[in-house]
TrEMBL record:
Tagged with keyword Coiled coil: no
Transmembrane stretches, start-end: none
Name this protein carries in UniProt: Amino acid/amide ABC transporter ATP-binding protein 1, HAAT family
InterPro entries (UniProt xref): AAA+_ATPase (IPR003593), ABC_AA/LPS_Transport (IPR051120), ABC_transporter-like_ATP-bd (IPR003439), ABC_transporter-like_CS (IPR017871), P-loop_NTPase (IPR027417)
PANTHER family to which the protein is assigned, alphabetical: ABC TRANSPORTER ATP-BINDING PROTEIN (PTHR45772:SF3), CONSERVED COMPONENT OF ABC TRANSPORTER FOR NATURAL AMINO ACIDS-RELATED (PTHR45772)
Molecular-function GO term, any one: ATP binding
Gene Ontology CC annotations of this record: plasma membrane
Ranges of biased composition (kind: Low complexity): 265-274
Stretches assigned to coiled coil: none
The ABC transporter domain, residue ranges: 7-250
Keyword field contains Transport: yes
Length: 274
């Protein structure tokens, strides 16, 4: 029997004025599964993420985390309940060191809130944990640097470290390698692959790059005009009409173009229209 879903959306919908940006999306995500969310620009992927993580309220539908209805919960209480979203660097403290950023996340997970000063014994324990996580994300040598001094790629790695420290039930990444150099991106993708290998966490990944998706995803869902257009095994979904249309620009509502007619003696002088 497949494991019970850790995250579910039922009929999740948001309207902006007359525009339905996310349209009755019903989907479930299981522990240990990496699901890529794809679709053309404006399809509703980021808005779907915002509805799940609580950045915007739903117009209709529900979000369930580990069987609990969190539809009306604030973003911060969703984080405490186990939703871990990478926020494109907005959840870093730029003037603190790399180590302090991760320590604060460890503290937050332990329910001690964000405190810079704590008991000496706690302090040693938290520092050791933070350093172990930093080694995992290949940032150990930069532990004492302030965040503001890091490269963009290292800041993205730190974000993954902070999520690991929070130990969420569900990891959410929205284009995690955007803006990274060619040598930095594989490190973050390897980290995500390692998270996938770790027991029992669901990973949601919004991504445009098909090679990344092909390598990491167990399943792909496709959003199109806000609605769920496909959901299945990567190979099957990539070959589907809806993905071919979205990524190769073929408009499936139009009939296939007729092959250009062979020039005939009657069409003298006319160039065939291709
Ligand atoms: N706060 C908002 N107010 C009004 N319209 C919005 C708002 N947020 C998103 N939209 C609209 O909802 C639609 C979905 O946008 P969204 O950013 O979720 O798409 P996306 O699939 O993530 O696109 P991209 O791949 O370009 O990031 C778009 O038409 C967008 O303009």
């Amino acid at each position: 029997m497949p494991p019970a879903p850790v995250l579910e959306t039922h009929g999740l919908t948001v309207r902006f004025g007359g525009h339905v940006a996310v349209d009755a999306v019903t989907c479930a995500f299981a522990p240990g599964e990496l699901v890529a969310i794809v679709g053309p620009n404006g399809a509703g992927k980021t808005t779907y993420f915002n509805l799940i993580s609580g950045q915007i309220p739903a117009s209709a539908g529900t979000v369930m985390l580990a069987g609990r209805d969190i539809t009306r919960a604030s973003a911060s209480s969703r984080t405490r309940a186990g939703l871990g979203r990478a926020f494109q660097l907005t959840n870093l403290f730029p003037n603190l060191t790399v180590r302090e950023n991760v320590r604060l996340a460890c503290q937050a997970r332990l329910g001690r809130g964000f405190r810079l000063f704590s008991l000496a014994s706690d302090d040693r324990e938290l520092t050791a944990e933070a350093e172990a996580i930093l080694a995992r994300v290949r940032l150990a040598s930069l532990a004492g640097q302030t965040v503001a001094a890091l490269s963009h790629g290292d800041q993205r790695k730190l974000e993954v470290a902070i999520l690991i420290a929070l130990d969420p039930l569900v990891y959410m990444f929205d284009e995690p390698t955007a803006g990274m150099s060619a040598d930095e991106a594989p490190v973050v993708l390897d980290l995500i692959a390692e998270l996938k290998a770790d027991a029992g966490r669901a990973i949601l990944l919004v991504e445009h790059k098909m090679d990344v998706i092909g390598k990491l995803a167990d399943r792909i869902i496709v959003l199109h005009n806000g609605a769920l257009a496909a959901d299945g095994e990567p190979a099957e979904v990539i070959a589907s009409d809806v993905v071919q249309e979205a990524y190769l620009g073929r408009d499936l509502t139009e009939p296939a173009p007729e092959p250009a007619p062979e020039p005939t003696p009657e069409s003298t002088g006319e160039t065939p229209h291709v």
